[in-house]
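Review box. Two proteins, two foldings.
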Amino acid sequence: MTNDALRTILPVAGWGEERARAVEITGGTDPILPTPFRIGETSAAALAAIGLAVADLWALRTGRRQEVAVDTRQATASLRSGHYMQMDGAPVSTERNTVMGVYPAKHGRWSYLHCNFPNHRAAALRVLGVPEDREAVRQAAAQWDALELEEAIIAAKGAGGMVRTMEEWAQHPQAAAIASLPLMEIRHTALAVTHRREPPCRDPPPSPGLREGKRLGGGDRRDPERIHDGGGTVRTHWRTGSRGWSGTSQGVTQ
């Protein structure tokens, strides 16, 4: 299957277009989930690029190459992996806080309130001046101009915003800032060290589908960041056989 997204990111890693032919991508095309964005193609492209990089590292170590294959449906499912998570054989709840969501505001506009983290929820409720009750939040938000509510919540160190059309977002300063950046870049940020303290975790078991002897091993990834970047990076290292851990600040919900 042709993947234009993969061909777009290949040059960033210094790879030629012929590397795209080294990946087998199956599993259908977008839309896989109900969204106007091509998340199936892009998630498959990202995982394919990871697979190519891992194959290169394996070739450097062993002189042998590995085949890389990605199922687009499974790649898309990985974007909402929390929905399929189990602990001790039982599903893990993915329910959001009841006041989190999109609310009607003045002049026919809508406002989104991110309230899953306690600190963000407290900021939104403080701005609205209401208790943790969805109906109370709905009535309070309806009295606000959506843009003014966005600015007030951000000033209170909360999270949320006015719902915008694609055209409105394109005119936003943050959209302009993002548009000025490369799609992806690789930067050398620090020199490797020859000694390290072992992280407080055991080596991970081989990932399902990763045959013994195929693990990279010997790698060590430490990432004191947040969910989307830190956790995702560590997960990638664990799946390929390296060690890794992700941390956060005391009192900050993950």
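Next protein.
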Amino acid sequence: MLLGSVLNDLATGPARRVDRPEVWHDDTLPGVVWMSGLSSEYRIDAVDEYVIGAVTGSAGYDLRRRSTTYRVRPGELVVLDPEHDHAGTQTRDGPWEARLLVLPAALLSATCDEVPSLVRARIDDPVLDAPALRARFLALHRASSNGAAKLWRECALLGLLDDLAPAAGATPRRHGDPMVARALEFVRDCYLDPIDLDTLASEVGTTKFRLLRHFRAEVGLTPHQFVVSVRIAHARQLLAGGTPVSVAASECGFADQSHLTRYFRDRLGFTPGRYRQTASKGR
């Protein structure tokens, strides 16, 4: 998930000066979040989510990723991985308007038979001058907000992700380790249950030290981070649909509401109640 997430930057904060934030979920892929809004600054401590975005107004913004600052101009596409924190600030042209898609890597890995290559990679070049890909992204974004047919959205998104990977200079993580595949399958089936490293290692037939090394190399997270990310992604879907926080906590493997709130605030920078309020308005 995103610590100080994009949603937080679109929707809250005294210095953000944001107008007309919209946030919604659909069934294109599990856990994807669609956003649009106006922002003057943001900061993200990346943990688990890939972000694809496009400026839709006349103003661009300055994107800082690690020690490099990029000027994102209207007409360009941005693709960000969870490997590095990133931040954005307005230029002298003022706040920028953008459409965003957030892809939860852990949830996709835990629920999809095959994960798109982009969501298993590091992104070397986050700012793309790719008009055709940008047009496809914006068409898909509008299709989600307009309730287009699921089959069209699925085909459009998966095709876009495949084509974005080489365009963004994506470097694949190690993939295909049978041990990790079994661990992911176990989490897929049992994320609601208490899981410890000994149990997970026993299920896949290895030591916990070897599992931890291989899991981190392929997934980019520890097993614990992965499980928490899957649970939060499921909770986010429920909250966006208006489910009470206490119910979402119990249905997603958290001990209680305070347990969910603590992890939610740590990962996203604000409370599940605030997310429920903002995301529900965008439905």
